[in-house]
Specification:
Blueprint lengths: L12 E4 L4 H9 L3 E2 L8 E3 L2 H7 L13 E2 L6 H4 L1 H18 L28 H10 L9
Length: 145
């Protein structure tokens, strides 16, 4: 039997905290067995709320080397584009304060290495700012989600 630590995506024990037949059928099709009670598990398939409740600093519960989650606590900080931009901007400010070479800027004041995200607007709150920028640069490409 192979394990995740062997570099092969396989599991002997799976824990699912909600009933999704499409998931459980696929797990069973692969020969994965549902963990019961305090059994060791390799994959824990849960909703974001459950992951946040179980895997937080207060519980002290940490993943083992062969354990995987389908979500991680505070995942919205990366998966929501507006929050990801906020975190990248904070990272850039920290790099600037430290004098890190990654925070080097060109003669216009733009980052040389960390200009990795486009202008981002959270509507409806940023609508006025967005319209102003759109009118200034009508030929630019705009992505709306």
């Amino acid at each position: 039997e192979k394990s995740v630590s062997d570099g092969v995506y396989a599991a002997s024990q799976v824990e699912v905290n909600f009933d999704k037949s499409v998931l459980t059928l696929n797990f069973e099709k692969r020969g994965w067995v549902k963990a019961t009670g305090d059994e060791d598990w390799n994959i824990y398939w849960a909703n974001p709320w459950t992951v946040k409740q179980i895997f937080n600093p207060e519980t002290g519960f940490r993943l083992g080397e062969t354990q995987l989650l389908n979500h991680f606590p505070n995942h919205l900080e990366l998966t929501r584009k507006d929050l990801m931009v906020k975190n990248i901007k904070r990272f850039r400010r920290e790099m600037e304060k430290e004098g890190n070479p990654l925070a080097e800027k060109d003669e216009r004041g733009d980052f040389l290495y960390m200009e990795i995200v486009p202008m981002t607007y959270l509507l409806p709150g940023d609508y006025t700012i967005f319209v102003e920028e759109f009118r200034r640069k009508p030929d630019e490409m705009w992505i709306m989600k």
